[in-house]
């Protein structure tokens, strides 16, 4: 089997690439990534010399190059992780989110349509459903009510993917997952930011009252779900993926502080995120019932594994948070990290 993965140098993409090559010894995997600030080839260092993995630096929005690549490689499936993924950045500058997340997905869909790619798997997010009140959870039938430019761009991509299934009869599948955490997550997202700040003795900025709720999933459980959707999923279907670990942000932050034996006085309540979604919760009964998925790592185990990984890979995150990376980042993006 030949897979073409996009965004495979990012957090979830690199975990997925490693999972697939570990699980399928015969796999041929082409990994396409633009290497934005979030893409990091260090995540794939363990694959050096592995001929089953080929890395290609490319923007998914470069439609001519993408069409040539998909036409030449003729993969059995394309798995699209490539995206701008951080909500706060989308509030500061939405344009690149539309370019990559919507037009980039369109460029991939067109290339797959022309090449007759057998399966297109779109990695979506629960944020497209908007925000929940105190009770209930998102099902695949919940209306799309995105509240941030990031979520709106991902909803736009989902609509395009669905439309290519209906209009051109392509086998397209969409997954919508809740908040991931684990190794290789860029330290701008809640858990790695708080964890590395706590390890450095720096303040932990909690937005608003800290009572917003997210449903946390350890990244390898997400990767196993995606593998199942690729192997056994149905054309045109949407699969919600969630960890059944609803926590307030304050609970998450306090768990991290306790795990690294840092003082709770590091917590700082700061101005809230505009349009901040109050609560996410995912109903993944379709994935469990139809494809037999069960998460293997509970929140306590996942946090312990994550803390251990960040402690053991200090050079990975220190380089990102260091002056060297800041200089590169500020030059590229004209904005402070
Ligand atoms: P990430 O920001 O860590 O990685 C994104 C990767 O995409 C990076 O390697 C980056 O270089 C690459 N990329 C960005 N623009 C590109 C372009 N134009 N062309 C090619 N490559 C490009 O993101 P992540 O957290 O790993 O998320 C991966 C996917 O999963 C995204 O589609 C995101 O919407 C989705 N998702 C994330 C979460 C989560 O909790 N992190 C949850 C559900 C869904
Ligand atoms: O639900 C899936 C989504 O989860 C993915 O689609 C996104 O790509 C991913 O970034 C994530 O979005 P969130 O906005 O939920 O994640 P983030 O880590 O940015 O924030 C999690 C919660 O923590 C949110 O309520 C905002 C809060 N927060 C975040 C940061 C960075 C803080 O209180 N302080 C912070 O400094």
What is the number of domains?
1
Within the largest sheet, what's the order of strands? 3-2-1-4-5-6-10
Number of strands: 12
Taken as a percent bin, the fraction of beta residues is 15-25%
The average pLDDT is 95
> Alpha-carbon distance between the termini?
40 Å
Structural class of the secondary elements? Answer: alpha/beta
Radius of gyration: 19 Å
CATH architecture: 3-Layer(aba) Sandwich
Q: Given the C-alpha coordinates, what overall shape results?
A: globular
The string of secondary-structure elements, in order, is EHEEHEHHEHEEHEEHEEHEHHHH
CATH topology: Rossmann fold
Helix content: 40-55%
Domain NAD(P)-binding: 4-304
Pfam family, one: GDP_Man_Dehyd
Family: Belongs to the NAD(P)-dependent epimerase/dehydratase family. dTDP-glucose dehydratase subfamily.
Organism: Candidatus Glassbacteria bacterium RIFCSPLOWO2_12_FULL_58_11
Annotation keywords:
single chain; 337 residues; alpha/beta; Rossmann fold; seven-stranded parallel β-sheet; 12 helices; 12 strands; 44% helix; globular; binds nicotinamide-adenine-dinucleotide; binds 2'deoxy-thymidine-5'-diphospho-alpha-D-glucose; dTDP-glucose 4,6-dehydratase; dTDP-glucose 4,6-dehydratase activity; EC 4.2.1.46
């Amino acid at each position: 089997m030949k897979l073409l993965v996009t965004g495979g140098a990012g957090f979830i993409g690199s975990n997925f690439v490693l999972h697939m090559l570990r699980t399928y010894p015969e796999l041929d995997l082409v990994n396409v990534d633009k290497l934005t600030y979030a893409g990091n080839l260090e995540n794939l260092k363990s694959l050096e010399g592995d001929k089953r993995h080929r890395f290609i630096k490319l923007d998914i929005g470069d439609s001519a190059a993408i069409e040539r690549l998909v036409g030449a490689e003729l993969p059995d499936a394309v798995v699209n992780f490539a995206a701008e993924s951080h909500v706060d950045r989308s509030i500061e500058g939405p344009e690149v989110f539309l370019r990559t997340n919507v037009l980039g997905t369109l460029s991939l869909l067109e290339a797959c349509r022309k090449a007759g790619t057998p399966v297109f798997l779109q990695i979506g997010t629960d944020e497209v459903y908007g925000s929940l009140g105190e009770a209930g959870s998102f099902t695949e039938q919940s209306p799309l009510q995105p509240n941030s430019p990031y979520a709106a761009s991902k909803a736009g991509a989902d609509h395009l993917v669905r439309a290519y299934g209906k209009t051109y009869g392509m086998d397209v599948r969409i997954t919508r997952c809740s908040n991931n955490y684990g190794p290789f997550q860029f330290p701008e997202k809640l858990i790695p930011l708080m964890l590395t700040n706590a390890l450095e003795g720096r303040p932990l900025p909690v937005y608003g009252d800290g009572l917003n709720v997210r449903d946390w999933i350890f990244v390898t459980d997400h990767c196993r779900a995606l593998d199942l959707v690729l192997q056994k999923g149905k054309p045109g279907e949407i699969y919600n993926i969630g960890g059944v670990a609803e926590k307030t942000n304050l609970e998450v932050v306090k768990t991290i502080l306790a795990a690294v034996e840092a003082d709770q006085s590091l917590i700082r309540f700061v101005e809230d995120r505009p349009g901040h979604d109050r609560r996410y919760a995912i109903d993944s009964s379709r994935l469990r019932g139809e494809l037999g998925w069960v998460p293997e790592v509970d929140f306590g185990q996942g946090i312990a594994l994550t803390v251990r990984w960040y402690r053991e890979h200090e050079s990975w995150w220190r380089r990102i948070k260091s002056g060297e990376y800041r200089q590169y980042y500020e030059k590229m993006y004209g904005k402070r990290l």
